[in-house]
Amino acid sequence: MLELADFTLNKFLEDFYPNGMPEKIAFFFFEQIVRGVQYMHTKGIIHRDLKAPNILIKDYKIKICDFNVCRFINEDLENPQPLTRVGTRNYLPPEFAKGESVDKELWPKVDVYSMGVLLYVMLYGKEPYKYSVDFVNPGRMANVIRNINFDKEPKVSEEAISFIKACLNPEIKQRIGTNEMKNQKWFQAVGSEFSKITKTKKFGSHKDLYTEILR
Q1: Which of 15, 49, 151, 208 is catalytic?
Q2: Does residue 49 carry a catalytic annotation?
């Protein structure tokens, strides 16, 4: 049981940013999500259903919820099961379409793909594509992913686009991991702006920082 949150991220977007968040605001929330997922992965947990409705906002702090279909990387079973295809359609990675076994060391990158979709939703206010029955053919799904439309309103930076593409790489082995995210140009560029704000002023709460960013 969790305390009652103020919003889900999905509801927050609908109410305040139906056409997508400014990059600073998206970073404010997404960076918290990254830290949460990194911590989850250090505990050997793969969420497998990261999406806007499963991100809670309480006093502008992020909480990840709904671990209903999570898996433990280090589960000690006599007959360990492969990473099965579960989750929400428009957030599912292409390796699930292939129906192939995913090596355990790559399991965390399933969550990274969902995070890439999530950031797209945060910046554009909509999902990058709609799931199709044709995605049982992994080649078709990979083609759709590679042709996601980033050239539309609202305009986002090339660094943000590159970051999302790195998360959505159809080849799981080439997809970035959560530990690599902070080395990406978008993370460093927007993160440096946050550093300037936090170094010049102390904030008593996440809400205070959020208010400062809005100025």
Answers
A1: 49
A2: yes
